[in-house]
Amino acid sequence: MTSFEEAETEETVTCLHLTFYHPGQDEKMMFRCLNFSKREQVRADDAAKFGRDSSVCRYNLVDTRVSRIQFSLQFYRRLHTSEYAFEIKNLSKKTKLTVNQMELGHLNKIDLPWKCIISFGDYQILAEIQEGESVDYFETYLHLAKAPILQERCLPSLQPIPEKGISPSLFLSQGKSPTEIDENEL
């Protein structure tokens, strides 16, 4: 047998992609202590903590408005399954944490959806889980967004769209109402 045949089976690693945004990031440089564009390994039994206290938090945000420990992410295996997941817990006594518009108060925790937006104050973090099989550790991969992650989203119009693609609002804005025409008259 060759060394290739005897080598251990390579396992994939769960990776948590986190994309950070803050409107004042260029002036205040609150993300300067984060290591962007490089995967980092985190032991499975360690909680990944985010906040401004560098002695406690693995991921430091240099901003006095951020709590000493803002929130933590804990990697775990779901009971009676082989699935792995993350749990997010708000550790801030003063700031509410929002996960996909679900508000978490101090010490509240929920399972992190596979893709979600975490926000507190002016901070926005897009979290995306890339599944893996490793039980010893997971990886984090941090990115910096140039534009806001949360955008004002316009709800689609509830008006029916005609087959010809002409919006009824176009006629209404001109003071005319739409009229029905027999298709043979076209």
TrEMBL record:
Compartment(s) where it occurs, according to its Swiss-Prot or TrEMBL record: Cytoplasm
UniProt keyword Transcription regulation present: no
Record-level GO cellular component terms: cytoplasm
Superkingdom of this protein's organism: Eukaryota
Keywords for this protein: Cytoplasm, Immunity, Innate immunity
Gene3D superfamilies, A to Z: 2.60.200.20
GO biological processes: innate immune response; positive regulation of canonical NF-kappaB signal transduction
Name of one Pfam family that matches: FHA
Residues in FHA domain copies: 49-121
Record carries keyword Signal: no
PANTHER family in the cross-refs: TRAF-INTERACTING PROTEIN WITH FHA DOMAIN-CONTAINING PROTEIN A, TRAF-INTERACTING PROTEIN WITH FHA DOMAIN-CONTAINING PROTEIN A FAMILY MEMBER
Family as reported in the entry's similarity comment: Belongs to the TIFA family.
Listed name of the protein: TRAF-interacting protein with FHA domain-containing protein A
Species: Polioptila caerulea (Blue-grey gnatcatcher)
Organism placement in taxonomy: Eukaryota, Metazoa, Chordata, Craniata, Vertebrata
